Amino acid sequence: MGCSGCSTGRGSNNLPGGCKSNGGCESGGCNQLNVFDWLSNMDNPSSADLPELVEVRFKNGRKGYFNNVDNLSLNVSDVVAVESSPGHDIGTVSLVGELVRLQVAKKSIKDADILKIYRKPRQNDIDKWQEAMRLEKPTMTQARKFAIEYGLDMKICDVEYQGDKAKCTFYYTAEQRVDFRELIKIYATTFKVRIEMRQIGARQEASKLGGVGACGRELCCSSWMTDFRSVTTSAARYQQLSLNPQKLAGQCGKLKCCLNFELDSYLDAVMDFPETSINLKSESEEYFHFKTDIFKRLYWYICRTDRMKFIAVDIDRVKEVMAMNKRGEFPEEIIEIIEEKEGVKKELDYLNVVGQDDLTRFDNKKKKKSGKPTKRRNSNRKPNKEDVVVAGNKPNPNQKSTKKHKSSKPNNNPNAKKEDGDKSRNKLNSRPKRSFKKSSNDVLKPKSKPNKSSNKPKKED
């Protein structure tokens, strides 16, 4: 999945087309199995007389270590021509400096196996190298057709040409031994290069092809893993996983490599656990083991008579009951049921500020806001209760009102305001409307004029 193996990573000028840095970032590009040189700014005085070693990357993360005999000035992502058998090969520098010596010592590479760097490639060397890379895909398609015609039980996974087009390596997978002597002759006469067949496993095939795992990330074998250890079903049993081959298998069809990542932690946790094959007995009932919660140190048991009765028991309590049953003692309550204490609330480790965990937060529909501005009532003045029209609540002229207009009644309240005040208000209402902005404290007064005669007391005859 890195730039060295994808379709954009080995294009023109050896720059990855999909990378925004174009291979110029500090780590040397987004190539497969990349190593960050954390010793780049440090020099080791003791290695002054030792040969300078350089790590060179080829297709699909294949790396080799070479001796810089001519003391060329090399940096990460430089293209170099290196020694090969036969001829020469062209690769990209992936690591320089003191960290290369640590990698060589870690992988136990002998001095006799370290080849040398010839030179920086010329333009004709780069042209021939790019032409060889363009031949890889059609060559693999034609090679698969030949393998099917001869009826060989094998799968051609990848094809890699050498930089000088002198040799071609075919990577294949097979369940059993395959006699491909006739196939090599057909390949040599068709492609006119030296043929090398190399068998790889299913995990190495997945690392070359790349992909995305069930976790949503890039496959570990194609991003950082270099050694593949055997994975057994006992690793899934120790971790209390269901033995479902569809869930336990990876992209390669084998058991997932990540089953071994946390296996040591589980093995350390279950060292002092009692046996699950021993049943727990009380005076009236018997319980057998159902499942285990390793990191909570709980055993789950089921009652033999009532299969719907599940009980969680602590490991220490299980050991105690087993010891009592071994002595022939049967307690009345052998199981300590783990229940949460009432009234104790769990404290959240976060603050729900906007109610994002409320499932019903989208159920309440908000009312649509009207485009007309609203007018508020004057909070200091109490308006009349009769026919007060508030702005924003005006009746719709197209809609017929069902309420009848109440006739004005005489105001018999002795504390009512004087008649002069009513006259002044009516005069203000009779004026023509002006185009000015009303404040929020303005209140519209009733349109209907009060009956003056109704307020006056009637004269008695």
Short description:
The protein is of the alpha+beta class and 461 residues long. Helices cover 23% and strands 15% of the residues.
Features:
single chain; 461 residues; elongated; GMP Synthetase, Chain A, domain 3; 5-stranded mixed beta barrel; alpha+beta; 12 helices
Biggest β-sheet, characterized? 5 strands, mixed, barrel
**Helix tally?**
12
N-to-C series of helices and strands: EEEEHEHHEEHEHHHHHEEEEHHH
Global geometry? elongated
Kindly provide the radius of gyration, computed on alpha-carbon positions and rounded to a whole number of angstroms: 43 Å
Strand order of the largest sheet: 1-2-5-3-4
Helix fraction bin:
10-25%
Distance between the amino and carboxyl termini = 112 Å
Beta-strand fraction estimate? 15-25%
The residue-averaged pLDDT reads: 76
Determine the structural class based on helices, strands and strand pairing.
Answer: alpha+beta
Low-confidence stretches: 4-13, 386-392, 401-408
Question: What's the β-strand tally?
Answer: 12
What does this entry look like structurally?
This protein has 461 residues and is an alpha+beta fold. Among the domains are: 12-122, no CATH class; 135-206, GMP Synthetase, Chain A, domain 3 (2-Layer Sandwich), CATH 3.30.300.20; 272-340, no CATH class. 23% of the residues lie in helices and 15% in strands. The chain is built from twelve helices and twelve strands. Strands 1-2-5-3-4 form a five-stranded mixed β-barrel. β10 (286-293) and β11 form a beta hairpin. α3 (136-149) runs antiparallel to α4 (181-191). The radius of gyration is 43 Å and the shape is elongated.
